[in-house]
Design a protein that fits this description.
It comes from Peribacillus simplex. This is Acetylornithine deacetylase. The chain is of the alpha+beta class. It is 36% helix and 22% strand. Helix 7 packs across helix 8 (304-320). The two termini are 33 Å apart.
């Protein structure tokens, strides 16, 4: 025999089916905004208007303030301004006695560059649908999750259900480089009893651990000259190879150590990526300077500053072994990600309720896993005693050409989130006046 919550969820699930074309259109619109670093304002204003007009939420906009955030242990140093780049917060405020618990749904709207665009078979800003896949930059990472969390709450409201606790919808900036967008919203007081982030990192599994991440910049000086005297010059690009090799040696050392329990079965959890190299301005000129930028992963439970100090010492020690670099040591600096890893216990109410919601849609138990990169979930788990996990749609091509999201999974995640809202927040079956 079906329970009351089963019948109510069926009603909400039907509402999601009815509004599915609207949700797809909303997702396409999100994915057509080229919301790379520094270009997030248009999509944020679009989302703010939607939350206010279509969901009747109280909407706030927060601009991250580096001066206010700089003393926080989770703050990451940016090299750009936050002017006109808001974080958007929409609040559903429950009326009367709070019978359930409050929750934050948080998604990031910043995306990485789609370059080189020539590698794409579909327009990276076109949100083209082929079969059950939508192609484009940010379709999987993670605008589909943003659409799912918004339309889950919208379906509950459109079905005439009043939730018994507050829901906060956040769309944040800079998840891809600092996390300062998420941090600023929490520091402004937008908190709840738990947080769900619809990242695609594990698809429809719950996240229980992620690595820490820092960004490093290594500047190597050479001795420039006309190519005619190249044999007497020092090519900074060639000298930079030695620092790149040292970074890769450091990666081997990280992965040769005893693994953190949540990554014990992973063959290579701590990745160092050589992400950018810049040098030279003329083929016939020996370059005087070469800058290498890399991303460094490390185990949970390790202070990012300790990794920075250790890595800097390691690179300088490697430079000491080289004739040129020992006399002309590289300049090593850090910016962007200063992100600590985390590990949480899945034996808690957040995962229990997510499991119930997952089973209502997927008809099988929720699985959990670990992630070898970082997400904004770290802030809640590490600094605010707010349990947080990631659970989102499935797709491929994150940070790569031809990114796509499985639209069937987007609908299922929307329904899972709706089921979570009913169970976590509680409800009363009251028609909402519009």
């Amino acid at each position: 025999m079906k329970t009351e919550i089963d019948l109510i969820f069926e009603n909400v699930s039907d509402q999601i089916d009815k509004s599915w074309e609207e949700e797809i259109g909303f997702l396409q619109k999100l994915c057509q905004f080229p919301s790379t670093l520094g270009n997030e304002a248009p999509i944020q204003h679009f989302i703010a208007d939607f939350l206010e007009k279509e969901l009747d939420l109280s909407v706030s906009k927060v601009i991250p303030d580096p001066e206010k955030l700089s003393s926080h242990p989770g703050y990451s140093e940016p090299e750009w301004t936050y002017d006109e780049r808001p974080v958007v917060i929409g609040e559903y405020r429950a009326e009367g006695d709070k019978k359930g618990k409050s929750v934050i749904f948080q998604g990031h709207i910043d995306v990485v560059s789609p370059e080189p665009v020539s590698f794409w078979e579909h327009d990276p800003w076109g949100a083209e649908i082929v079969g059950n896949k939508m192609y484009g930059r940010g379709t999987a990472d993670m605008k589909s999750g943003v659409a799912a969390m918004i339309f889950a709450l919208k379906a509950v409201r459109d079905a005439g259900i009043k939730l018994s606790s507050n829901v906060i919808i956040k769309t944040v900036t800079e998840e891809e480089c600092t996390g300062n967008g998420a941090l600023s919203a929490i520091e402004e007081g937008f908190k709840a009893d738990a947080a769900l982030i619809p990242e695609p990192v594990l698809g429809q599994k719950g996240l229980i651990a992620q690595v820490g991440v820092i960004w490093v910049r290594v500047k190597v000086n050479g001795l420039g000259a006309h190519t005619e005297k190249a044999d007497k010059a020092v090519n900074s690009i060639i000298e930079s190879y030695k620092m790149i090799n040292a970074l890769l040696d450091y990666e081997k050392e990280l992965n040769s150590q005893k693994r953190h329990k949540d990554f014990a079965e992973h063959p290579h959890p701590y990745n160092i990526n050589i992400g950018k190299i810049h040098s030279g301005d003329w083929p016939s000129t020996v370059p005087s300077e070469c800058t290498v930028e890399a991303r460094v992963g490390f185990p949970p439970g390790v202070n990012p500053q300790d990794v920075k100090d250790n890595l800097k010492s390691y690179l300088l020690a490697a430079a000491e072994k080289d004739e040129w670099l020992s006399e002309n040591p590289p300049e090593i600096t850090f910016y962007g990600f200063h992100a600590e890893g985390f590990s949480i216990d899945p034996n808690q109410e957040l995962f229990d309720v997510l499991n119930v919601a997952h089973m209502a849609v997927e008809e099988k138990p929720l699985e959990v896993g670990s992630f070898t990169a970082t997400t904004d979930a770290r802030f809640y788990n590490l600094y605010y005693d707010i349990p947080a996990t990631c659970y989102g749609p499935t797709g491929e091509g994150l940070h790569a050409p031809n990114e796509w999201v499985d639209l069937d999974s987007v609908k299922r995640v929307t329904k899972t989130y709706a089921a979570f809202l009913l169970k976590w927040c509680g409800y009363s079956n009251v028609i909402i006046e519009k």
